[in-house]
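User: I'm preparing a small set of examples for a lab meeting where we compare how different chains pack in three dimensions. I only have the primary sequence for this one, and I'd like the structure in token form so I can line it up with the others. Please keep the answer compact; I'll paste it straight into my notes.
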Amino acid sequence: METRLVKENGNAISNFLLQIKSHWYLFAISFIVFLGLAFAYVTFATKQYLVTSTILLQQHPTTPDASSQYANGGVSSALTVTDNIKNEGDVLRSRNLMKEVVRNMHLNIQYFYRSGLLATEAFEETPFIVNISKNKVDSLQLRKYVINVVDDNTINIANSDEDINLKVPFGKMVSLPQYNIEISKRPGVLPVKQEFSVNIMSEDDAVTGLLNNYDAEFTDKATTTVEFTLYYPNSKKGETILQNLMNQYLADNLANRKRNIDSTINFVNNRIAVVAEELSGIEKNYQAFRSDNNITDIDEQSKVLVGNASIYADRYQQQQVQLSIIQSLKNRLSDPGNKEVIPSSLSIQNTSFATGLAQYNNLINEREKSKLSYTDSNPVIQNIDQQIQLARRNLLQSIDSYAKEIELTSAGSNNQNNIVNNTIKAVPGKQRALGDFARQQELKQQLYVYLLQKREETAMAKAADMPYSRVVDNAKSSKSPAKPIKPIIYVMSFFLGFIVPLGYVNSKSLFAKKINSEADIEKQTDVLVIGKIGHNNSSGKYLVDINSRSPVTESFRTLRTKLRGLLDNDQSSVIMITSSVEGEGKTFLTSNLGSTLAMSGKSVVLVELDLRKPRLSGFLGLDTTKAGFTNYVMEELPISKIIRPSQFDENCFVISSGPVVANASELLLSDRLPELIAELRSKFDFVLIDSPPVGLVSDALVIQKHVDMTIFVCRHNYTDKNQMEILNDIKTKDNVDNLYLVINDVDFSSSGYSGYGYGMGYGDKVN
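Assistant: Understood. Below is the structure token output for the 767-residue chain.
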């Protein structure tokens, strides 16, 4: 495998070198042309200087502290999403930014010393300035005007496209087809009698021209430093353009920041008005709620309510105790037989009851004393009993009256207690409502104060007119022109001078329909090529001179050697020679191969079996009217009647086709053909059969069954590449294994075929 690869690489290199050798004049002309074009381009192309500068992009400084953040960047830095610094690269390369520079510097008007190819762009050196005052068309077309300073006060303006040639004074309005212009004197520059030219174009065209030579890229992925590059013919003007572009970017950035701040201030002012109104509404509702609920201090009032509830509860309990005592006392007084003293320590807070109780106890004590002296029936005792009964009755009346009073007071205390308790139950809800009002009030108040603070901070940020981004390096031009780069131009021209002719040669070979190299054959078929027959330069000479050392003769000798290696030399060999179409040289190959074999001492017979268009006999100069193969079949003649000696070698014989017949295929299918071939095998070393073209008729396939080898002939620059499919079909579909290929009419000095030169420069002189 490695040997095969080396061989293929060697063939590719040989073919490549052969292409250069064969078309050396194309390569020479191409080198001269492209080097000349490179020299002309380097000489006359517009020289461009490289202008560079650097700018540092920075965001608004931010810190976790909100107040510090707003103090630095204004409220807009928090209310909007933080811009990605990397996006600023697109802004720096934007068309709008460049258009602002073009408009500010009037870069759509270019000034030149002289005109034509030798024109050199000027900047502020021209003694005049061109101003466009009125556009008459929507889209301006490029116009070049030649301006000559006639004297200190007069200029001449000319343009052949618009048929304009005017002499006008400085400062006068000139009406042109696309616009009106005014040419005024440039301050500080004296008028010089010299030819100038002015190019006037649209702003869009000027922007496009600048953007094509401009770029802005970050110097490193980890930094925000942007490097600007601009190629421009005038170094000073290029520096001014690039410096103006950076300043314009910083100004736009600052103006955009101020616009954002103004928008933020308006937003904050609107929000302050809304929040103030909301805060006033909350405070009014808070006041109304406190008034409606009689709330001054909810905590102190809650304490008072809890104290009152305790007082009313204690009072109610005391009154219930009084009622219980009164009820027990009433039960004792209601018993007439009860003569006991009632304790005066009972906590009954009633003056009349206390007086009656004291009188009642005194009577009881007096009766007990009287009983010591009197009996119950004694009038004294009875009188005391009557008094006791009256005192008891009065005491019971006092008790009833006091009980009613206590009951009424107790009911009132209970009602007051219930009222206070209900009021206490409502306190948490009121506290929650008060908390909601206080919270809303506090939030709105904080927001109001916050917005006031931010308005002041944003106003302070607006007052700071310094952009955060800054210029690191001002625009600086290279000392010498950076374009065109001469080494690259000449190297490119050298390669073009080599590639263009090579591409032409290869494309010619690629699109060629005819076979013109061995590589074409290898791409179409895998049939082994056993011979390459050189081109025969001898006009009208069909048989080669066996004593010659010409490439054609040597190619036949090489083919003879190949045949000996492929065939069995101990027995006779039958070889059929065919092609795809006529004119490819099968008859030429048959006759010359037979002559070469005969010259080596082998007995050879040439059999002309192209019965439809026989040419072999005529090619060899034999009489075509004598009997041949058709007579052998149809008249059943013996071989001795049809075989004839050739005129060029005693070892070579010929059997002609005989008269042309209509049933050529049927004759080839007869049993006489294998009999003929078998008899010829016994008498000759080689039997060479000149068969019909296999691409036109099927006769060759009939003959092929009786041969040892089939040689397919294709012709250089004659055989169509598509006809190689016939060869593949014969090998695959017809199962022909003994099939080999010979290339005819090869010019080894110019074609892409490998070979040994066939004796050129070695041995005898070529004839």
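A couple of notes for your slides: The chain has a mean pLDDT of 79. The chain has 22 helices and 21 strands.

User: Perfect, thanks.
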